[in-house]
Design brief:
The chain is mainly β. The chain has no helices and 15 strands. Helix content is 0%, strand content 37%. The radius of gyration is 15 Å and the shape is globular.
Length: 166
């Protein structure tokens, strides 16, 4: 929400977002984003789930190009295999309001970034190691097509870019 001291200048309007139940809902893409490479994911997200809320997106499993807002009930996680990155708790991840999230996934996990509402988030832990090859095309709302972790909340305007955005 952007505003001037006296009047609001913009407010996100939810007319066509998709609601995910956290149980088994996900969008399965057909051949999209099938190779691990530097990628930027941009989306609007709203969630009130304060417990573990894993599986915002993924490519075949919890540790295969997967991102979670509340992986361990508190912290966002990008998981690539033996390489992963946690960010510090972001209060916006479960406040029930709309927020714009950008995940920059770099094949060198130490270069991966997370933004919420345009603010670069601080890293809490990183592990380097080998990355898992993608086993499925992009799943939105779940980290794999079936049997994985699933997101609870709304997602809108999900976009994927084959580079880091400035």
């Amino acid at each position: 929400k952007l505003s001037l001291p006296t009047i609001p200048t913009y407010r996100f309007v939810n007319k066509h977002s998709i609601i995910f139940d956290g149980v088994d809902d996900c969008i399965i893409t057909d051949g999209a984003d099938t190779v691990l490479q530097n990628t930027t994911y941009s989306m609007w997200v709203k969630s009130s789930a304060t417990g573990t809320n894993a599986g915002l997106f993924g490519h075949g499993g919890i540790n295969t190009g997967a991102f979670s807002l509340n992986h361990d009930s508190t912290r966002p996680l990008l998981y690539l295999g033996n390489a992963y990155r946690y960010w510090n708790d972001v209060p916006q991840q479960d406040d029930g309001e709309w927020h714009h999230w950008v995940v920059y996934l770099d094949t060198d996990i130490t270069n991966s970034k997370l933004y919420c509402d345009g603010v670069l988030q601080t890293v809490s832990a990183t592990s380097t190691g080998t990355n898992n090859a993608y086993t499925e095309s992009l799943s939105i709302g779940g980290n794999q097509q079936s049997g994985g972790d699933y997101f609870e909340g709304n997602i809108d305007e999900f976009a994927v870019f084959d580079r880091e955005l400035t």
